[in-house]
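Before surveying the methods themselves, let us examine one representative protein, pairing a chain with its fold in token form.
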Amino acid sequence: MSLVKFRNRRPFGSLITSDFFDMDDFFENRLMSRNVLGDRFWNGKRGEPALNIKETDDHFEIELAAPGFSKKDFSVTIDDGCLNIEAEKSTSKEEKEEDYTRREFSYNSFERSLQLPESVKEEAVKAQYKDGILSFNLAKKEEAKKRPPKIIQIA
């Protein structure tokens, strides 16, 4: 026997209003699948930007989509074998006229942590931010680099 989520179905289940009877189903399947609540680059997860990881013979390349930030908005650390990426940005604007005052503000932040393989040289990690993409180059230790096969002569 296994546990499954109980869904309390109403007698009018086939009507369009049935979505409103089950609010969990409405928010999970309707709004998120139609991308109403999120941006396209956020990868469908709140607060986590999209990430690409590529491994070559001698290093790893990581690209993280973070448009709208500047270099000073990021905090990148390596702690206990984990690459921690944090970004925070806030802006505010105030416009005063004779008969009204308009204030606008925005706040955007995210955190992302990646467990690094033991083959990475932590002291040789390089980062660059350009055109909304935060890029990392993580060099591998010499013993982890792929070597060409050794040819053995038969006597």
